[in-house]
Design brief:
Elements lengths: L16 H11 L1 H33 L3 H51 L2 H5 L2 H42 L1 H18 L3 H27 L1 H7 L2 H53 L5 H13 L1 H28 L17 E3 L5 E2 L4 E6 L2 H11 L7 E3 L2 E2 L5 H7 E4 L8 E2 H5 L7 H10 L3 H5 L8 E2 L8 H15 L3 E5 L7 H14 L4 E5 L3 H4 L4 E6 L2 E6 L1 H7 L1 H8 L4
Protein name: ABC transporter ATP-binding protein
Organism: Nonomuraea mesophila
InterPro entries: ABC1_TM_dom, ABC1_TM_sf, ABC_transporter-like_ATP-bd, ABC_transporter-like_CS, P-loop_NTPase, Type_1_exporter
Amino acid sequence: MRSLPEADPGVPDIRSPLRYLWWTARRQWPTLLTGIGFATLWWLVQALMPAVLGRGIDAVTAKDSQALLFWAGVLLALGLLQAYTGLMRHRMAVQTWLSAAYRTVQVTARQAARLGATLPKRLSTGEVVSVGNSDIAHIGSSMDILLRGTGSIVAIVTVTVILISTSLPLGLLVLFGVPIMALAVSPLLRPLHRRQRRHRELVGDLSTRASDIVAGLRVLRGIGGEQVFAGRYREESQLVRQAGVGVARVESALEGAQIVLPGLLIAVVTGVGASFAVAGEIPTGQLVSFYLYAVFLIGPLRTLTEAADKLTKGHVAAGRVIRILSIEPEVTGGTASSPGGVLRDSYSGVTLQPCSLTAVAADSPDDAAAIADRLGHYADGDVTFGSANLADLPLAEIRARILVADNSARLFTGRLRDELDVRGGATDAQLREALHAACADDIVEALPDGLDTVVAEAGREFSGGQQQRLRLVRALLADPEVLILVEPTSAVDAHSEARIAGRLAKARAGRTTLICTTSPLVLDRTDHVIYVEDGRVLAEGTHRQLLTSTPAYAATVTRGED
């Protein structure tokens, strides 16, 4: 059932991955700034600890008990402050991660609802699903790392200032060493970015292939095509594996750089500081402080490398989100109004009179589906609804008044009652009437909890015919002003089809209904039949009139049989 809400103003008009990340950060700036403050203080507390510990060692060397107790107390206070700021930093980081990740889910879901029938035409299911599976995690991580990344920069600057004030050569060594290490890592980021993008694309394609196989497994088993599709899936999964290995190679080099480069800086700083201590230029406590600073710098430097990695992944993930957000709906609405009345498609000539049960029989099923799409404003066309052009009406009004129900609609997971009564306003009597009209009473009676039974994903516990009848129940309960049904009985048996055809007129009394079908059982129960050939109306009348007056119609609905 293709009835979707109108565009949500919460969907951002953004065309750049960097701008999307900036928009995500700006939307949660109080939490982000608070987290950055705690992260900065957390790093600063750790940056001060080597200096305090060096002073304590100097107090031990000087046998100054009072100074030793003082610096020990300062070290304890710093430890407690570090614990508190670390706790709050982590709390803010988790909140930031969740906000960024699920805000992406929200805008993606809103855009999917805004696009409606346009989305499956432009993107595969796997591409959309991969946003919720993996991309939201990378976008959340790119926001999370901003906290520690910003604090690590402040910590490196603080340590550099302390070292320069204590020993100019050591301070300059750190001051120039850190940017050199950052530049040494940068050549790895571009190939990492490229390989991650390729890997994401392959994962999306593989997800699409898997969903197609699962959806069509029953058909594949019927025609013996399981092994063929399993082979195709195996080939594509190997491509994903190879792309993943390619990403892992660059990531392993990046991970190794996080260890080797800071290690080299530690060795150099420690070596230079030791030579100063041997020469008597600095006391023992300062030598220990220098060594601890060198070890401490591993954390901020690894954080900067991690930030480069996560921001790169976040950029790639944001690109996939932007790909969805940049799609525009194929059809839009206006601001006009219409009291209703005759619904007419000028291209084909199909005209629906108010409060009538009309059928369209086309020599090609695609022509009937195209007419339904135009009448429901899922495709552009010169369609009038009463005295107004359909395209000039607000899209929300069109979706509320005209419902197109086809066989691509699905049942969702949840209570069957909720899946059938999507608006939540139907009474038990209305539910029973709709079930009776769609000949679906036996389906509900066979369920262990009746209408309270929980439906599995896509209603896979129901057969094709049962799903079709339940979708018809859902369409009838929506009770739109105009209901357009596309092949509503193609998967049910002849006995059920005849009963449904006889009950539809009563269920839709006083409403306009169009059925796109070539079933004689259904056509014989309608008020008016329109025969379409090559996309245009060729003949109109009752089913029996057309059988005798239009040979092409007779050949179409009887499949060439007498």
